[in-house]
């Protein structure tokens, strides 16, 4: 532990498991005071494991997100790091996507990120300091497999949101960035995708394997730290080279 985010107050939305849990653990290891906000009750156990606190929250709901930020600010008087990682990724071909499914994906992945930024901006502006990191994806901004129209739209939409928020946050010392993971072996990936999908992806990735969630966490830590003070409005691809091949190799 080097204390790269020592004593910073951080919230990670969508951190009961998967990438978010790894990010929360990494921030805690580096000295942050970490709050996990997630819809799954397992978030309580994850928070206990890393010495953090848990708040139940549906990130697509305005009131839930605001209550999380209010509770943290009431306790500490500040919020310095906000990671919005909650996301859902149903796989459905475009002509089978119902309006309800479309709306749900956009509500969690895109609206949730807007709500998190909006809520975090107030305490961050007050102290002229903030680090906001959103989980985008290579899916949407760079590539897309079949069955991901709504997901790709939501994750590509995050890039516009990141730029807009970065511009508006800059006068207040707030940076806003994204991470674009490739394929990561998480609980969600195992539940939502077939073994054949995972094997096929592994073969197509130059490093020949999916990422471990812990491998993603370092990029979030960097963007949340003071080392990234001059980086804003952009995103880091962490994909094992998946988006490199020009054709099938
Ligand atoms: N796994 C991958 O290969 C991959 C690749 C690119 C991007 N991503 C993105 O990374 C993020 C995390 O994915 P993961 O693979 O760790 O998924 P996961 O399902 O393992 O974990 C996601 C977490 O978010 C929470 N969550 C979902 N909807 C929520 C809501 N409405 N409110 C609050 N919490 C909610 C879940 O309860 C869970 O704890 C997502 O945004 C996903 O789109 C994942």
Overview of this structure, please?
The chain is globular, with a radius of gyration of 17 Å. The longest helix has 29 residues, at 99-127. It is built from eight helices and seven strands, in the order βαβαβαβαβαβαααβ. The termini are far apart. The model has no long low-confidence stretch (mean pLDDT 97). It has a single domain (9-236), classed as Rossmann fold. The chain has a seven-stranded parallel sheet with strand order 3-2-1-4-5-6-7, sandwiched between helices. By secondary structure, the protein is an alpha/beta fold. Helix 1 runs parallel beside helix 2 (43-50), helix 1 crosses helix 8 and helix 4 (99-127) runs parallel beside helix 5 (149-169). 47% of the residues are buried. The site of nicotinamide-adenine-dinucleotide has 28 residues, from helix 1 and helix 6.
Question: Could you list some keywords that capture this structure?
Answer:
249 residues; alpha/beta; Rossmann fold; binds nicotinamide-adenine-dinucleotide
Q: Quick one: CATH class?
A: Alpha Beta
Q: Quick one: overall form?
A: globular
Number of domains: 1
What's the order of the H and E elements?
A: EHEHEHEHEHEHHHE
Secondary-structure-based class equals alpha/beta
What is the CATH topology descriptor?
Rossmann fold
CA-CA gap between termini: 40 Å
As an assembly, this protein is single chain
Return the average pLDDT rounded to an integer. Answer: 97
Rg (C-alpha, Å): 17 Å
Strand order of the largest sheet: 3-2-1-4-5-6-7
Binned, the helix content reads 40-55%
Sheet with most strands: 7 strands, parallel
**Helical segment count:** 8
Low-confidence spans: none
CATH superfamily: NAD(P)-binding Rossmann-like Domain
Give me the count of strands: 7
